[in-house]
What does this fold into?
Amino acid sequence: MFSSALNDILFTLVPARPNSIIRSDFARGMDQSLINDYQRAAEKALSRAVPTLLASDWLNRADAYFAARVERREMLFALTMGEFVTGNGRYIDKIIDLAWAITEEVTWAEAKDIALIDVPEEDNFAFETASLLSWVWHLCGSAIGRKSKYILNRIEDSVSLRILAPFARQEAPDWTKKRGERTFERLLKLLTAYLLIDTRDKRRWVSIRRIFILMDSLIKEFPADGVHPVNMEAWQRDLSALSDAAQLTLFATDNRVDLSNDKKYLRMADYAVSAHMGNGLFVNPDGAPAPVLLGETVFKIGHVAKNSSLQRLGAMLGKGQEDAPGLSVTDKVMTTLIHKNYLSASPRCPIRKRVSLPIGKLVAAHENGFQAALTGGSRISGHEDACNLFITYQGEIVFFDLGAGKSRAMYHSCPMINGILPEKGFSGATDVEAQFEDAYTYLFGNLASAFPETAGVTSWQRTVMLSPYEKRVRLVESYDLASPAESIVIRYVTPIRPQKTPAGNILIGSVVFSSEAGLPISITPLENAWAIEINVENPGMRQTLAFVLEGE
It folds into this structure.
């Protein structure tokens, strides 16, 4: 993604100097409410004294020592953004005091041991400090320089000596070889410092080149857990860092090198849309959403990737960004650039015409207002959701997964044979495939191996059919048993309170569910959901049953 454009970056890289790259983009991204928020935070920081660092706190390993250092950085960021949006010089003196205090600290590392050894290449807190001071230098450097060139140089020299020079001397520190553990985020913080504050052009270029090559070596197109979004928090963290790196590079090359067009990056960004189509966790009604994704961060990734579906997903996930713990300074600054667009975005379910991820056992399609997905199920231990079904109509959820805390098969769209439910998730589904044709789309999955042997299931083929010419979804359940069953119940789970129609069908929102054979349909309440159940009469050893979801 990055290393393929290294030559282009080399010849277009803008020299690091205060206020040289993103001012106009900030102006376009911020609305008045955000400006007011920054001013309020700056005024609050202005009224507080610079936190002191006491030797007694450090000797006692007291939390107060580290807390004071965190408070310094939070105050400095608030004042920097306040000064940047107002430009009236009101906060400059306090910014200088805090920057000076931070440059005087014995270490920027977290320093939880008595030795206070500064090992910046291993310490995320040190990288974050360098990133913060780089933004201070870049956004407020002109105003600081008018007060004192010495202060401006001191900030640059501190970042250079503590962070930039040590990294430049190493080919590949051990921490850069591990995907996860915030490696992308650390590399982004280094990249931020080199792009924004490093005025030594040769070192700057060599280090940026090394960072990009390291990032490329760590990039994986999909999380290791396949399609189930168990690892979406890591996806958000890594893709946010990659997106910010691409956006910063765009600015630092005077909008000439756009890394976000890379095909692998675009597929990585779109993973969240595919995962959302196949899982109900993003819209989980059962308590807190899982995974915990930040709407504005997801929107930002979609904005950089020019992915409108991902932007819609971010808008749908909603606010809460300002209260999120652990966001880096660069993440906060880069999110500011898209804030206005985020507020005006339409919060709708993301749409993807066709999705086929065989390695993750996910197939999905969108036709005529209906969106349907079959998944292999969750790889999380204990989840009984093989061949899970997820359907929406006009953005409204029809069938879904109850999500966190509801791992049993009874909370999923799973059949029951002689009172026996499936016991497996991902490992229980086989042949999860799709067939895309002009007139119809077929989604297939076999959940036979999800049942225990006592159920005697030879095959249970689930098929979902959609067509661009019909406002309907056809669900076909075809089974083959080793011996005749006494009872079979087919069930689908919905978050919308269903209603029976005079004809005996089921109204789910604006969708009518019916049995093609006219089988009786019942409704069973669940916690925060309802099960649509069909008791199969004279089930025998094999049958093919069809049901229809019809839109308005």
In short: The two ends are 45 Å apart (CA to CA). Residues 63-86 form the longest helix (24 residues). Residues 113-121, 224-228 have pLDDT under 50 and may be disordered. The chain has 16 helices and 17 strands.
